[in-house]
Amino acid sequence: MNPLESLRLAWRSIRGHRLRSALTTLGIVIGIAAVIAFVTLGASLQAGVIGDISPDDQRNVYGWAAEPDSEGGPLAGAQPVFTQDDLEAVEDLEDVEAAYGYATLQTQAISNGEETVAQGSGMIASGPSYIREERITEGRQFEMGAREAVVNPAAANQFEENVSVGDTLTVAMLGGQQTEVEVVGITDNSEGLSPFEGFESSPRIYVPTDPYYTEQASMLGIGAGGGANTGNQSGAGGDAGAGNQSVTGGEARFLAIIVEAESADQADIDAARESTTDYLESDASDASELLGDDLEVQLQTSTELLGQLQDVLNLLQNFIVGIAAISLLVGSIGIANIMLVSVTERTREIGIMKAVGAQNRDVLGLFLTESVILGVIGAILGTGLGLVAGYLGVQYIDLPLVYPLEYVAIAIIVGIVVGILAGLYPAWRAARTDPIDALRYE
Amino acid sequence: MASSGTAVSLSNVRKTYRIGEPVHALDGVSLEVPRGSYTAIMGPSGSGKSTLMNLVGCLDTPTEGTVVVGGRDVGTLSDRERTRLRGTEVGFVFQTFNLMPRLNAVENVALPQLFQSIDRDERRERARNLLERVGLGDRIDHMPNELSGGQRQRVALARALVNDPAIVLADEPSGNLDTDTEADILDLFDEFHEGGTTMLVVTHERHVAERADRIIHLLDGKIERIEELDGAGGSQAGSPAGRESGGGDE
């Protein structure tokens, strides 16, 4: 029998049991929809995160010192071991373009003139080139040693009167002391600039490590000393080399460092990483004093760090897809069950068809077609539902929408496979029905 | 008329079922059904009528002996070949009509041709013609449940004829019909028989059997006797009397 005719007959009998067919496909619909929705979310999430690594950022190597088997992404288990001297020494290494520290400063509130907003940890201290030129829409990078800041739009817009270049903000640090920053630049968007920050949008104020971190470090007693530092910073403005003077005796130690390789080439990155590690672990560095046997310097690129994040995402996604697969299994058992009922119910019809010349394979084909139709309809509806659900989810979380279109094809194939597997045994039973018995069947 | 050769022949056919001890459903039956003939088979329950039907209809194979349908020995055929022979050389008419419930009249009639992979338009055309010939030209799109019993049996008859079979097998074709409809159907049988169709009707109603040229009486799996009726070919002969005498239930 011509496959088109099988299709026509099978469709006829599916339409003959609308409700039953609908309920039967529901299992497949839910399973496929769940897979498509979560895979869409996952792909969008990854696109959202990975899209934030600017090409220029790819040559950055992010470093921290932690116990070798610490897991959990950037800065997990990090200890403050790096001194400014170390950073300068690293920067002087042949393969390194620049090196600077990174620290999050604990704040209480930020005031713009009369207006004050509470803010906990939105102040980030780093080197000037931490903020790429091309990400600054207005103004310029801050300078090391100056009381300057670059803010992102979220930080700038949190005041009733938007902050603009040239304004001065007063920041209340966690310890209670007040410090002032002059806004010299505004970035293009509010997403994080590096994996250390995370990539979500939130208000951030970027300041030079010197003076802001060194001040706070000495205040909180991080590092070996440096009470003397506080005094000599306020006037230092404008001189990028000021870092030298400000950290002379007392070493404010950084939790995290950023090392820029010569280029984003893997070879350059590896070279920068290698020489930095060699230096930091050698006796020449200040960090080596504290590294001891327990700590190890971890140096990773954004891509590598995101890889870890992606591993977690993938794990989560596989987990959900696994659950959805169980739903698919249940769905296909549903199809198999209904097909068996249908075969029994239509024993007499099978007898008639065989009496008028239907071959076993015609009957087999007919029932198989029917279950494949159920599977494919389930897959198509499930895909549609999944895409809609994924879209809504992505809108809700505010991510760039990425449809994993290969999964749509996979879903349809899965629908066909499920239909075949679920229909195989019932169809085989139908095909084997003895027409004499079947015609006698009431 | 048109009796050139043999449509079906059985020689020394034995069919044994083993349910516990062997039961001979048919016990050495030999029978020739010439082309264009009209044969009735009568016999009480358990006499082997159904078994004979199944063998002639290529639904089953004999334990011993040979059954030849349309020139081919059914016992030597593979399952597929037998199915194909059944589809092309045998037309069934059942007591319970056995139409496909979700197919309309024309689709039901065309069904046997579907399995012979005949083109859809050609199928419909042939089915439509046959429906017109059985008097249902105006009901070709009706579903079986929209048709009366008599109409359904006409559809079934048209379906039996659609592949132009060597023989039409009718198993109690009027068993579920009232007297008037029964007469209509049997008249149609006569009409097709006159047109050259070979008919084999299984019944236990004397007046139905009397439409035929001859009646084979089966008893306990054997042919008890063969009754030749007058006016072979002219089937109307003798039938009024037969019909009046009514229920010749042995």
Automatic annotation (TrEMBL), chain A:
Which InterPro entries does this entry report, sorted A to Z?
ABC3_permease_C, MacB_PCD, Macrolide_Exporter_MacB
Is Transmembrane among this UniProt entry's keywords? yes
- What are the MacB-like periplasmic core domain coordinates in residue numbering? 21-274
Give the membrane topology, semicolon-separated if more than one.
Multi-pass membrane protein
Predominant location:
membrane
Listed name of the protein: ABC transporter permease
Q: Which family does it belong to?
A: Belongs to the ABC-4 integral membrane protein family.
Q: List cellular component terms (GO).
A: plasma membrane
Q: Does the keyword Zinc apply?
A: no
TrEMBL record, chain B:
**What CDD domains does this protein's entry cite?**
ABC_MJ0796_LolCDE_FtsE
**Annotated InterPro entries:** AAA+_ATPase, ABC_transporter-like_ATP-bd, ABC_transporter-like_CS, ABC_transpr_LolD-like, MacB-like_ATP-bd, P-loop_NTPase
- At the top level, the lineage of the source is Archaea
Enumerate the UniProt keywords alphabetically: ATP-binding, Nucleotide-binding, Transport
Provide a GO CC annotation, any one: plasma membrane
Query: Which residue range or ranges hold the ABC transporter domain?
Result: 8-245
| Protein's UniProt keywords contain Plastid | no
Matching entries from SUPFAM superfamilies are given as: P-loop containing nucleoside triphosphate hydrolases
Region of interest (Disordered), residue spans: 229-250
Which GO MF terms does the UniProt record name? ATP binding; ATP hydrolysis activity; transmembrane transporter activity
Q: What is the protein name stated in its UniProt record?
A: Phosphonate-transporting ATPase
